[in-house]
């Protein structure tokens, strides 16, 4: 039978993590599925669980002039009720699973699970999110792109907790999000696409494109973004083949139960073109 720890605060959670061999448990919506057992038996765990889902230090959001800090134990549902959360992040959350899962699942769990199909990830990549990792003796900030190494692979040390997500504020007057799934609700992505741009007087001042489920990690290609930046819209259209070729090399999907590599690559490249041709 698995045991559990219910720390009274964040410091106690870090202490337990430092001293015991435990698995962090927030909403459990990934963890329980990953450790599922035969029908009607409890999930199987090799070590005790450390419940962090109710720690107040990991809840709520803080806004400053230049950034937004989100506690990682915020449930997906609770973020939909927060005024300061970017609308595009809310849009991606509304399309995750069902209300019951969103009421339990946390944004920190979505990140730490590091699934290529994690729906908040492309948005956080595009927004340039940084993550605050804290242990009993240290604290560091890393870019989300450096935090995730591949499917289920993250750089979190055994003694660290992902405490918060920091999103720098930025202006975008063009926003396009698309989750491609087998149905409108309660579907894991075949792929997902986010395009953000700031366009002024017909010129692209900032552009971010991130695509999920088309490679082991979310695809965000700085070389392509740099190529597009400062160009006017007509020039982007005439350079579309060059832009497509940059992305073509980076989009390396797989076949799985949800889709095929060919479908994913075709749709991802078309969404990039659609965004650049008609949505900016
Ligand atoms: C039916 C169903 C449908 C789903 N549909 C979708 C979907 O459409 N889109 C989608 O993106 N996801 C989906 N999910 C996956 C899941 O609900 C989300 O990834 C959710 O955000 C996970 O959060 P959690 O708090 O439940 O994570 P948990 O299961 O508690 O934890 C996940 C992992 O992260 C670690 N962890 C959690 N929090 C922290 C922290 N703060 N610091 C360090 N480590 C931490 C845990 O140790 C574990 O390894 C679905 C799940 C189910 C069961």
Task: Describe what this molecule looks like in 3D.
One of its GO terms (molecular function) is oxidoreductase activity. This is Xanthine dehydrogenase FAD-binding subunit XdhB. The chain is of the alpha+beta class and 280 residues long. The chain is 34% helix and 24% strand. It contains twelve helices and 13 strands. The protein has helices spanning 10-19, 31-34, 76-80, 87-94, 99-104, 107-113, 120-126, 144-147, 222-228, 233-238, 240-250, 261-279, and strands at residues 4-5, 22-25, 48-51, 61-63, 67-71, 130-134, 139-143, 148-150, 153-154, 161-168, 174-180, 191-200, 203-212. It is globular, with a radius of gyration of 20 Å.
Radius of gyration: 20 Å
Mean pLDDT: 97
Portion in beta strands: 15-25%
Q: Spatial order of the strands in the main sheet?
A: 4-5-10-6-7
Number of alpha- plus pi-helical segments: 12
**At the third CATH level, what is the topology name of the largest domain?**
Uridine Diphospho-n-acetylenolpyruvylglucosamine Reductase, domain 3
Whole-Å distance between the termini? 55 Å
Low-confidence stretches: none
Number of DSSP E strands: 13
Helix/sheet category:
alpha+beta
């Amino acid at each position: 039978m698995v045991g559990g720890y219910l720390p009274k605060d964040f410091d106690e959670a870090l202490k337990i993590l430092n001293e015991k061999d435990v698995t962090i448990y927030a909403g459990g919506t990934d963890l329980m599925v990953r450790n599922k057992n035969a029908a009607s038996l409890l999930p199987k765990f090799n070590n005790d669980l450390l419940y962090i889902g109710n720690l107040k230090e990991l809840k709520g959001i803080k806004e400053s002039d230049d950034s937004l800090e989100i506690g990682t134990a915020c449930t997906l549902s609770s973020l939909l009720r927060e005024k300061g959360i970017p609308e595009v992040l809310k849009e991606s959350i509304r399309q995750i699973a069902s209300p019951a899962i969103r009421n339990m699942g946390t944004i920190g769990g979505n990140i730490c699970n590091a699934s290529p199909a994690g729906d908040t990830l492309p948005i956080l990549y595009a927004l340039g999110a940084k993550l605050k990792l804290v242990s009993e003796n240290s604290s560091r900030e890393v870019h989300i792109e450096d935090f995730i190494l591949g499917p289920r692979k993250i750089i979190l040390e055994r003694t660290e907790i992902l405490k918060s997500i920091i999103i720098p504020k930025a202006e975008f007057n063009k926003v396009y999000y698309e989750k491609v799934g087998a149905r409108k609700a309660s579907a894991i992505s075949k792929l997902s696409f986010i395009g953000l741009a700031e366009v002024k007087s017909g010129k692209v001042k900032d552009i971010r494109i991130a695509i999920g489920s088309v490679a082991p990690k979310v695809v965000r290609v700085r070389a392509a973004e740099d190529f597009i930046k400062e160009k006017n819209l007509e020039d982007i259209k005439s350079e579309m083949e060059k832009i497509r070729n940059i992305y073509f090399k980076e989009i390396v999907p797989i076949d799985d139960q949800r889709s095929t590599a060919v479908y994913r690559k075709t749709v991802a490249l078309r969404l990039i073109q659609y965004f650049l041709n008609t949505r900016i």
